[in-house]
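Readers of this paper often ask what the protein records in our data store actually look like. The remainder of this section carries one protein's record, kept here as part of the documentation.

:::
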Amino acid sequence: MSTLLIQIEACLNSRPISTLSQDPTDQQPLTPGHFIIGDALTAIPEPSYRDESISYSNRWKLGQKLYQDFWRRWSAEYLT
């Protein structure tokens, strides 16, 4: 039952909330998955088993880059 609910949640969070383009070279439409994980939610993400530690400063820089990329795209696609 839990797996079914998770798959339904992934389906609902994959619906587009910005306009769809007919051009195949355009980016994917913005979805709720972009708010949740920063990318389109097409499948349940597999857990990462990599044993790499990222320094706090690099993790913060990566988070800031993802944040800026998201807001730039969201404001360009959703607000206009």
Observations:
- The first helix runs from residue 2 to 12.
- The chain has a mean pLDDT of 76.
- Helices lie at 2-12, 32-37, 56-77.
